[in-house]
Amino acid sequence: MMTVxxxxxxxxxxxxxxxxxxxxxxxxxDDEWTCDVCxxxxxxxxxxxxxxxxxxPQGVTCLHNVGLHFACW
Length: 73
Ligand SMILES: [Zn+2]
Description:
The chain is of the alpha+beta class. It contains 2 helices and 2 strands.
């Protein structure tokens, strides 16, 4: 149904506009970082993404830098 499709797309767009970033849409573990390229979760000890080999984003060891509420260590 065309009408349903339009409503679904508009709702999705509204949700995206409300959310500040993809990183906040997906819950983070405090011992992992999420690849900016492919969104795969990697161990904090991994210097590169296991899936696409992208470098770990700077500042990821302190999750305050990505707008989360975990304490720094
Ligand atoms: Zn990746």
